[in-house]
Design goal:
Keywords: Signal. The chain is of the alpha+beta class. The protein has one domain. A 6-stranded antiparallel sheet has the order 1-2-3-4-6-5. The two termini are about 30 Å apart.
Length: about 150
């Protein structure tokens, strides 16, 4: 699930460039950049929902049974950006990524300030996916705590 960490890194890089978004201070006086991250799991899916500097990263992996009798994972990633410029930039990056998947498993839809990516994986291990999503939250939490987003 290297793609998930890549997606988080893209989101973090894009938010680092966005300087016009205001941020909040926590009770400790540290800036929290509007950060929140939550991983939820159901019987057949896992979701990570992260907010940071006016952006939203919302990805759900759902395990499904294919026509061939094998399980696969459908991955839907939605990224919402505070500006059209940031969304256009992310859209271009995702379309570039999708162009390298010759099997057509990546589909990118760009509308307004939202980029949605549809993907599939043979990996149907929800526990591993949940661990990866928790890793996304941890990477972002560390970046916020370290002040990586200081202007």
């Amino acid at each position: 699930m290297k793609k998930l960490i890549l997606a988080s890194a893209i989101m973090l890089a894009m938010t680092a460039c966005e300087t016009s978004t205001s941020s909040n201070s926590s009770s400790s006086g540290k800036v929290d950049y509007g950060f929140s991250c939550k991983v939820t799991r159901t019987d057949n899916s896992v979701n990570v929902y992260e907010t940071l500097m006016g952006m939203v990263y919302d990805e759900t992996s759902t395990v499904k049974l294919g026509d061939d009798g094998y399980y696969y994972t459908e991955i839907v990633t939605k990224e919402s950006y505070p500006t059209a410029y940031a969304a256009d930039d992310a859209c271009e990056d995702w379309r570039e990524e999708a162009s390298h998947w010759n099997d057509g498993s990546h589909r990118v839809v760009c509308e307004g300030k939202t980029v949605t990516v549809y993907d599939y994986s043979d990996d149907a291990d929800l526990e591993e996916i949940e661990d990866d999503y928790n890793g996304i939250c941890e990477v972002a939490r560390r970046a916020v705590e370290s002040g990586e987003f200081e202007d």
